[in-house]
Amino acid sequence: MDPRRTARTVSDPKVRQVGFFTPAPPERSVSDPPRFQDPIQPPSPSPTQVNDHSPSGNSLSPVMIPPAHHHSDNFLRTALQATSPTKAFSYSAKTVTIPPENEDVASSFSPGRKVVSAKSPSSFPGVKASSVPASELTTVSVVNLPPGISEKAGGASVEVQNDRPVSAKTLKEKTSKAERRALQEAQRAAKAAAKAEGTKASSAASKVVTSANTKPSKAAKSSSQKNDGSQVAASEKKGGDRAPEKDRKKDAPHPRMQYDDKSRVEKAKKRAVVKQTEARNRVELFRHLPQYEHGTQLPDLETKFFELDPMHPAVYKVGLQYLSGDIRGGNARCIAMFQAFKEAIKDYSTPPEKTLIRDLTARISSYVSFLIECRPLSISMGNAIKFLKNRIAKLPLALSESEAKSTLMLDIDRFINEKIILSEKVIVKHAVTKIRDGDVLLTYGASSVVEMILLHAHELGKHFHVVVVDSRPKLEGQLLLRRLVRKGLSCTYTHVNAVSCIMQDVTRVFLGASSVLSNGTVYSRVGTACVAMVAHAFHVPVLVCCEAYKFHERVQLDSICFNELGNPDAISKVQGRKEINYLDGLVNQENLQLLNLM
Amino acid sequence: MDFQVVVLAGGNSKSLTPLVSKDVPKPLLPVANHPVLYYVLHQLEESNLKDLIVVVEGEDAGLLVGAWISGTFVDRLHVEIAAVPEDIGTAGALRAISHYLTAKDILVVSGDLVSDVSPGAVAATHRRHDAVVTATLCCVPISGSSESGSSGGKDKTKKPGRYNIIGLDPRKQFLLHIATEIEKDTRLQKHLLHAVGQMEIRSDLMDAHMYAFKRSVLQEVLDRKDTFQSLKQDVVPYLVRSQLKSEAVLSGIRQAEEDGNEKVSFPNNQVMVSQILANASTPSFHELYSMDPDGSAQTRKTHKCCAYIASSSSYCVRLNSIQAFMDINRDVTGEADHLLSDNVIGPSPKLGTKTTVGPHCMLGEGSEMGDKCQVKRSVIGRHCRIGSHVKVVNSVVMNHVTIGDGCIIQGSVICSNVQLQERVVLKDCQVGAGFVVTAGSEYKGESLARKEK
């Protein structure tokens, strides 16, 4: 299951080149410092390979690097290069056994109770209390479940839809193509029946079905060589089952879905957990990107709090925090997501008649699609998810559930520690050498790495001045400024519109990045290019600090083809100044379109 | 979602004396022909909360409530009844069932709440901020006070101190002050004001008595402060008051968290991770306050008390007085009729000739009415027999009531099994269950009840 692959058929790079953004020299300067990034940058694709792929590219995008770099092994390798002291850690040696906690949760309520509750419906179908003892809990009403349904703590109603694919899936281990085909027909029929029960139920079922379809190829892929594994899998997918292509598209709405394609948007809306009202007045150039009425999402998601049974509370909390903007920044979002996943894996128990590898992958996918609905994923998160799914798929079948879970949790810890924390430390160690006494350093927004660099340099006793450049509407720089000032750094704070004035005093520019793409393009928050170009004009060196796990093989020629649109109302309001309300009530005017690029 | 729901369906309430009795405990008091508890349970069911604990005061009431729930909600809800001794207050009731609470967070809902505020929204707010307590606040219904004059003028029974004084932070997320009774003066904490910088004090908000608590903290507070009687008057104000100096409350939890962290093999990195996470979000005043003025080390322990403010369009009233009872009856049949799922007029009312039933009325099944009756803005229960030339305006008539010919009933509540003989005139009265009003008598603004033997 590789949603990115299928989604990419839509984005035709020839069309994308229309934008006003050309790879001009100023942009180069952003990605300029190769001396700094060389050791951790993956090899760039050769142009011949690019040409090879483009004619055949029905499923592969024309501009794409060979699949060898596609796997997260690549990231592992590059990160290991960057983080040589890793060897000190021995994570594989320790195995922590975690007892399956769900059983505990399910039964922990029962002690000290006179009448057994409905958690074991098979034994007490429809118990009613006859006597009410004082100050004891008495079950007076129970929920009768139809027999034969797996019990789960609280999730009785949801499980009903899932048992249909389950029965089919046990057969699935070793089937020929024809058999698989037949199975799919049956599943589709079953799904059509399920659809009658409700849209949500059907989407859940289809998710299981699609994941079941694609997993065998993935398992095969993981065992064979990684180099051509994905290609084989892709061709197999194309030739073997053309029919499920439709099903697969129904899977999670990908961030790169073209939102000007009406029929697709409609389909995505049907299975969405978060109610997304699309903003009506959108800028023509960015119609293909999702943009929603921002006020509507949060209250709606909140009211559904108890209705999303399959969602783990930790994941739900993170989703809420993304949506409300409580967690921002690539690293923080990635870490928060992984910690939530860790919680989810800790509480996970494989349902009967399912295998952990497949069911957990499906579960994680549903979490991810929920998070996407809350806010589009950052590239770092995409890479992290790919890593996790890869680890799940590669779990040896012989592993017991608790072992598998502890392995995965250790993997997650290792990812956070190695790919994020350690690489940040390495970057800091290297970048600090670029700071000299008497420097005036400029930074834009609030990047966690840049902040660490500045603090570390300060700890080393270097004397320098920091210029924090900020921009509305989020004003993240103020938080950075507050922290820097508290640590005793001397700072200047200004907004991005004054950057050309302040730039003449600056000796170095440090920028954080959301991602570095395979053609060297730096992908960061809006305004970064502007700062970099001004720095270029003033002949000020620019250093971009980006962890290796944020690298991506995608090639993006401009910032129009993919971007994130924020709440357009945010730019019309000024914090702390209520009297500025010139745009109030004008938002729904036909000839006014607000654009808040993120 | 790791939430447990506790419905506090208190037994008898003194402010509703003629209406509630031993046979009809407060949770079963019919509002528009449904017990008031039905509204809470129905709403919880709609938000997919099916495992509930209902706490009832007194064993008899527990039996009655349990019988009713098992009859109404069988196959739909999984409800457990806990009967607690009377007069131990809401906090005492929670203390009594404390050992049944196991989930991470507890949602406490009052059983006399009639509202359409989603409990999910409260829980989500609670979770998002990782708060210790989240209180649901709703705007005071405007219709309640303005129309009350026309509906009976029961202003004297309405307590003036029903509304609270509530302090909020500028972003309206955190609860800074809560005072339940309006006193001459109320004391604000200086250090809290100093930490927040700005406080918004409002008196137009009402505490809906729907709280989300962090279980560990709630249990600790209940254990520690065994004099606390009421959630609303003791526990919540205490938590709000101590939110910036919560060493006593939170020490145990923090300890546990730190222990958990040390098991991880990279303790040093864990600090960095948490720092990255902390830096990513806008710090609330709690975090700012807990920092040292110079460094970043957290020295002072704080906890967050959140507020969920329901939108002004949502309906939210507590049934805690006769006036509220009248208001709710009127609203449920009228403007807030979405709270009830079934139809307003029962299946088989027998109406005589020239009898008119106005809008916003509700007739229970099996009720019979004679000729030339008028019913306006009233609720009439099941199996009532109403004679001819009867006028019922702005009133609530419960089940099995017999009303003789020529009665005029205005703004009154008539409980079950009451017999009104001919030509009775009632205005703004409450008639207790089983009472017999003799023919031709006139009452105004009185409360009639059978004497307890």
TrEMBL record, chain A:
InterPro entries xrefs:
IF-2B-related, IF_2B-like_C, NagB/RpiA_transferase-like
Cellular component terms (Gene Ontology): cytosol
Locations listed in the record: Cytoplasm, Cytosol
UniProt biased composition (Low complexity): 184-224
Q: Name one GO molecular function term.
A: translation initiation factor activity
Keyword Protein biosynthesis assigned to the entry: answer is yes
Query: Which of UniProt's keywords are assigned here?
Result: Cytoplasm, Initiation factor, Protein biosynthesis
- Listed Gene3D superfamilies: Translation initiation factor eif-2b, domain 2 (3.40.50.10470)
Polar residues compositional bias, start-end: 47-61, 132-142
| Extent of Basic and acidic residues compositional bias | 1-15, 170-183, 235-266
Instruction: Identify the stretch(es) annotated as Disordered.
Output: 1-72, 101-274
> In which family does this protein belong, per the annotation?
Belongs to the eIF-2B alpha/beta/delta subunits family.
The record's subunit annotation is:
Component of the translation initiation factor 2B (eIF2B) complex which is a heterodecamer of two sets of five different subunits: alpha, beta, gamma, delta and epsilon. Subunits alpha, beta and delta comprise a regulatory subcomplex and subunits epsilon and gamma comprise a catalytic subcomplex. Within the complex, the hexameric regulatory complex resides at the center, with the two heterodimeric catalytic subcomplexes bound on opposite sides.
What protein name applies here? Translation initiation factor eIF2B subunit delta
Species lineage = Eukaryota, Viridiplantae, Streptophyta, Embryophyta, Tracheophyta
UniProtKB/TrEMBL annotation, chain B:
Q: Which parts of the sequence belong to the Nucleotidyl transferase domain?
A: 5-148
Domain of life (superkingdom):
Eukaryota
Cite the InterPro entries for this sequence. Answer: eIF2B_gamma, LbH_EIF2B3/5, NTP_transferase_dom, Nucleotide-diphossugar_trans
Where does the protein end up?
A: Cytoplasm, Cytosol
One GO BP annotation of this record: cytoplasmic translational initiation
| Family annotation (Pfam families) | LbH_EIF2B (PF25084), NTP_transferase (PF00483)
Q: Which residues form the EIF2B subunit epsilon/gamma LbH domain?
A: 350-438
Cellular component, GO annotation: cytosol; eukaryotic translation initiation factor 2B complex
What are the protein's UniProt keywords?
A: Cytoplasm, Initiation factor, Protein biosynthesis
GO MF terms, alphabetically ordered: guanyl-nucleotide exchange factor activity; translation initiation factor activity
Subunit text: Component of the translation initiation factor 2B (eIF2B) complex which is a heterodecamer of two sets of five different subunits: alpha, beta, gamma, delta and epsilon. Subunits alpha, beta and delta comprise a regulatory subcomplex and subunits epsilon and gamma comprise a catalytic subcomplex. Within the complex, the hexameric regulatory complex resides at the center, with the two heterodimeric catalytic subcomplexes bound on opposite sides.
The family annotation for this protein states:
Belongs to the eIF-2B gamma/epsilon subunits family.
**What job does this protein perform?**
Acts as a component of the translation initiation factor 2B (eIF2B) complex, which catalyzes the exchange of GDP for GTP on the eukaryotic initiation factor 2 (eIF2) complex gamma subunit. Its guanine nucleotide exchange factor activity is repressed when bound to eIF2 complex phosphorylated on the alpha subunit, thereby limiting the amount of methionyl-initiator methionine tRNA available to the ribosome and consequently global translation is repressed.
| Protein name as catalogued | Translation initiation factor eIF2B subunit gamma
- Source organism of this protein record: Gossypium raimondii (Peruvian cotton)
